[in-house]
Design goal:
Length: about 250
Amino acid sequence: MRWQRQLPFLRWSFWRLAMGVRNIPKTGQVGDGREAAAADYVVANARRNDPEHVLATIDDFAYTKAYLINIGEEKGALLDAAVRRADPTLALELGTYCGYGALRIACAAPRARVYSVELSADNAGQARRIWEHAGVADRVTCVVGIIGDGGATLDALDAAPGFGPGALDLLFIDHDKNAYLPDLQSILERGWLHPGSIVVADNVKIPGAPAYRAHMREQQGRRWRTVEHSTHAEYQNVLRDLVLESEFLG
């Protein structure tokens, strides 16, 4: 695995990301065009209609061209395993970015309908290019918006095919870290989860989602059964991170 040999501090694209990190909650992008460049790289280099090769090509771009903030190879394996345990027919991702997480879900759950919510229309466009190239655009949908917009995005999802009480088998959270807990609570209020639904949260240590982690600890054995996976931040082997996998108990 290439992440085992990666030192982020030696890469200019890592430091460019660090300088642009304040842009991400506002724009969804680092600010140097790497997201569009990643989609261009996929279209130019990945085999069409081969989603596994598309994932590998995105990883290759992140290792050799510009550091990306999708879940990445090491943590992606944890997501894959959680998806297989959930065996979803309906999955929701918060934070599309370049479409990598939703594509991993689609690969691990070939019968699932996957929806992904993204604040950046530009990112949504790049993700759709990647999904079309991978051959999964017929079952992966991006909704542009945010959960905390007063209900418009939640209403759009509620009207989408498959959504309804207890219909959501898997939720993957990988967007604004301050929104993890309130957005989860909004989804709970809609009643979409059922006992046994699985929620996976990335970046709980870096950049960190302390309120979300504290809530899951406080609710352990009550509303949630949570496992904390100790791992590394994406595409390197120095900075430690946490991925939380939580089963909804009802």
